[in-house]
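so my prof wants the structure for this chain in the tokens format not the other one, which i didnt know existed until like an hour ago. anyway here's the sequence
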Amino acid sequence: MVDTATGSNGNHDQIRMIAEAMAESMAAKYAPPKAEVPAPLKWAAGIASGVFAALAVAGALWIANTLQSTSDTVIRMDERMNRFLTDIDDLESRVGDLENYHKEGRGR
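here's what i got, hopefully its the right format
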């Protein structure tokens, strides 16, 4: 209850202080101790994460380079195939002309 003369909540304030003190003592008594990570382990984790990040970037660059190289190879293969097909068409035309020449009897 609020003391009308002083305007304070004396009992509630005291109960709250006692409850907080009990909670702090219970937490200190029963809570597990905070585990501290050793500094060398922190350094090792930092270095490992940096190496992993560098490997990830290197892997991404390697994949991009490989894809570009593969694309260039496919373009060259396509150009060669087109030249090859043009050469085959030319050879077929020449063979056809030669066959017609011999069919007409001029080759004997």
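also thought this was worth mentioning. Residues 51 and 57 are 10 Å apart (CA to CA).
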